[in-house]
Amino acid sequence: MFIVYDENMNIKPFPQGVTPLDIFISSINRKRVKEETEGVHGYVDKGYTYDTRNINVILRSEANDTRDYRLLRDEVFSFFSEHDYLYISEEYQRGKRYKVTAVESFIPERINRRISSVGIAIEMADLPFAESIGTTQDIQLKGINADDELWGFGMGLIDNEDMVYKFVNNQSPRVFNAGNVRIHPFKQEFKLKLIAKSDSMNNGNPVSRMRIYNRTTDEYFQVDDYVKSGDVIEIDGPVVKINGLNALHKTSKDWFTLAPGFNDFTIYYLTDFELTFDFRFYYL
């Protein structure tokens, strides 16, 4: 069994007479990156990238009569074609969703005058990873409830007390990425908001920088300007804003990623601030 959502994560009801039966999800195809030189044996292995994964769903269509069968068939065609993309989630792992699009044609396999079986091959849209329906701010605000359909088994979740995504005056915050995929602000959904409640200082002297350093990955984000009390610094993917204005030019143009598991940070040159992380978890 599976559930289909529209682009806004509203459950998309199946046409009357259509029942979702099963879903089959493949592993992700890995594309080898290599460099060959004419006249030289073999090749230089440059690793791989994740390409895509295949998803197949099976539906049962039961109409009232042979004329109604054709109307229902057309509704199934429209169901998967009227959106640029949809989200699909497994009934028994509802916390993960797959962003998909149906691009291949399909023909229902007619069993009799009223009933048919429909198998549809679906492509992943954008990234090939499963992603959590909930975000870290859902956890921050409401915790993780076993009865909450945002979360489920197999999502790498740990005790609520260790899954904190809002920090006040904590210069060594610890952020947990429950997925098994590294998160990059350019490639996945990632938001950060820092509200400064003091000026940027170094040994008691004003300093024209502020740094968020991920010690786990040895990467950082840095503002190369004075940060004043009341400033709001926001990262939304590749977009950086300070007090609502684009401010990429005021940064060192360096970025940090989030490794799977715990990421240990250090905040430099600010002592009084509020810092929030908001992102989804991603899974192979």
Alpha carbon gyration radius: 24 Å
Q: What is the string of helix and strand elements?
A: EEEHEEEEEHEEEEEEEEEEEEE
Structural classification: mainly beta
Number of helices: 2
Low-confidence stretches: none
**Overall 3D geometry?**
elongated
Total strands: the figure is: 21
Helix content: under 10%
Would you mind describing this structure in some detail?
The protein has 2 helices and 21 strands. It has helices at residues 66-81, 136-142; strands at 2-5, 18-35, 44-62, 86-90, 93-101, 109-110, 115-124, 130-132, 166-168, 174-177, 190-196, 201-202, 205-206, 210-214, 219-223, 232-236, 239-242, 245-246, 261-268, 273-279, 282-283. It is mainly beta and 284 residues long. Strands 1, 2, 3, 4, 5, 6, 7, 8 and 21 form a 9-stranded antiparallel sheet that branches. A 6-stranded antiparallel sheet has the order 9-20-11-16-17-18. A 4-stranded antiparallel sheet has the order 10-19-14-15, with no helix packed on it. The two termini are 21 Å apart. The protein is 8% helix and 44% strand.
Outline of the structure:
This protein is mostly beta strands and 284 residues long. The protein has two helices and 21 strands. Strands 1, 2, 3, 4, 5, 6, 7, 8 and 21 form a nine-stranded antiparallel β-sheet that branches. Strands 9-20-11-16-17-18 form a six-stranded antiparallel β-sheet.
